[in-house]
UniProtKB/TrEMBL annotation:
Residues 12-182 form the FAD-binding PCMH-type domain. PANTHER family: D-ARABINONO-1,4-LACTONE OXIDASE, L-GULONOLACTONE OXIDASE. It comes from Knoellia flava. This is L-gulonolactone oxidase. InterPro entries: ALO_C, FAD-bd_PCMH, FAD-bd_PCMH-like_sf, FAD-bd_PCMH_sub1, FAD-bd_PCMH_sub2, FAD_lactone_oxidase-like, Oxid_FAD_bind_N, Vanillyl_alc_oxidase_C-sub2. Keywords: Oxidoreductase. GO terms for molecular function: D-arabinono-1,4-lactone oxidase activity; FAD binding; L-gulono-1,4-lactone dehydrogenase activity. GO terms for cellular component: membrane. NCBIfam families: bact_FAD_ox.
Length: 434
């Protein structure tokens, strides 16, 4: 008898024949072999933070929650091996206790490490790269039940394909990460004007290590976040607990949930609500451990589409998106987020051999998107936009093959390690081909 699974946002529901929660690598091998014997497909789920039907299956759904923790540490090389199901909010303090940190992080830490890497979670900072670029090795259970360890010296093609691999090449059970010494960030958040921030964006990303801005649609207002790395002797202090509670718990979650519920009931009030939201989150400055600055609590549920475009295209994309929103009957209470990263060499990374600006459009999960996701996709298509693998998009293998220079190599590796497509589902067939 099948059960029901839904993702975090609630926009994807599946009915797997069974949900299996392995407690060891051997359990994963057994589950993969048994599914193959039954003729069932296998998909793997972590926190369910993807907005696409990436893990949906009517076969076996593997939940890797029990595979958690640091497996091995090489302090001399600042490398750790981590069980695939380890949530980022668990991993970050564990690394901190070792005097280490990931070089970059996104702004949500609920994902499991394997899922964050598999979908290309990136963070921000043009002198820095996404989490996948920190991966130095993977251990996978392949379709035939074999366990393989891959890196730059051992089956490098499988390594490069499976790092941001969408779960299409096998079950990742361990990840080796190249860390850096733990570091602190000085965070500066200020309100600003959209036109001024976009015009000065290149100067901002050159001056600061990590830049992130949130534009409130239906207004010209933004919240600008600039994070700069500082020496451990820097006298800066963390934000007071009362301010952290006020901003992160009360305003950004409880109050924001209330505003979104009001917007769902009366969409016409969204422009006024966004004016309020843009003003409530005022200026602040504080210094703290990197992961405490990077990661924020996101309890208000939403749906999201995010595309990577060449950084030079950012002004045009924002102008076209703003013009579309202003000329259509659409209500968007969530801000549009803009970040940038440097290029990497991971075959299916959105940053493969290209520095990007990332533009993310959100909508409250109780509200219709009003056509904005389709309009946004049409805009970025004209700017070589590469979709975030875990966020809403409609691109298929034909278009993606033109956007990713190593796409053909990805398909050839998949043919080699999973010729019967044990790890397939309808969505993977759409984005990677048969």
């Amino acid at each position: 008898m099948s059960t029901t699974w839904s993702n975090w946002a609630g926009n994807v529901t599946a009915h797997p024949a069974r949900i299996v929660e392995p407690r060891s690598v051997e359990d994963v091998v057994e589950a993969v072999k048994e599914a193959a014997d039954r003729g069932e497909h296998v998909r793997v789920v972590g926190a369910g933070h993807s907005f696409t039907p990436l893990v949906a299956t009517d076969g076996t759904l593997l939940r890797l929650t029990a595979l958690s923790g640091i497996v091995d540490v090489d302090l001399a090389r600042q490398r750790v091996r981590v069980a695939a199901g380890t949530p980022l909010h668990v991993l970050n303090p564990l690394l901190d206790g070792l005097g280490l940190a990931l070089p970059n992080l996104g702004d949500i830490d609920r994902q499991g490490i394997a899922g964050a890497i598999a979908t290309g979670t990136h963070g921000t900072g043009v002198r820095h790269r996404g989490i996948a670029a920190a991966v130095t090795g993977l251990t996978l259970v392949l379709a035939d039940g074999s366990v393989v360890a891959v890196d730059d010296s051992h089956d490098p093609d499988l390594f490069r394909a499976a790092t941001v691999g969408l779960g299409a090449f096998g079950v990742v059970v361990e990840v080796e990460l190249q860390c850096v010494p733990a570091f602190r960030l000085r965070a500066l958040e200020t309100p600003g004007r959209l036109d001024e921030v976009v015009e000065g964006y290149e100067d901002l990303v050159a001056e600061h290590d990590h830049v992130d801005f949130h534009w409130f649609p239906h207004t010209g207002r933004v919240l600008l976040k600039r994070n700069s790395r500082v020496d451990h002797a820097d006298p800066g202090r963390p934000q007071p607990r009362w301010r952290e509670w006020l901003d992160e718990d009360l305003l950004s979650n409880k109050v924001f949930e209330g505003l979104n519920r009001a917007a769902a009931a009366r969409p016409s009030i969204v422009p006024r609500l966004n004016q309020v939201s843009a003003r409530v989150l005022g200026a602040k400055e504080y210094t703290d451990t990197s992961w405490r600055v990077f990661c924020t609590s996101r309890d208000v549920r939403f749906r999201e589409s995010e595309y990577a475009v060449p950084r030079a295209s950012l002004p045009a994309v924002i102008a076209e998106l703003r013009a579309w929103i202003d000329s259509h009957d659409v209500s968007l209470p969530f801000p549009v987020e803009v970040r940038s990263t440097g290029a990497d060499d991971v075959w299916l990374s959105t940053a493969y051999e290209r520095e990007n600006a990332y533009v993310a459009v959100h909508q409250y999960y109780r509200m219709d998107d009003g056509g904005v996701f389709a309009a946004f996709e049409a805009i970025v298509r004209e700017h070589e936009g590469r979709p975030h693998w875990g966020k809403l998009h409609t691109l298929g293998a034909g278009e993606l093959g033109r956007l990713y220079p190593r796409f053909g190599d990805v398909q050839r590796v998949r043919d080699r390690v999973d010729p019967e497509r044990l790890f397939a589902n309808a969505h993977l067939t759409h984005v990677l081909g048969e």
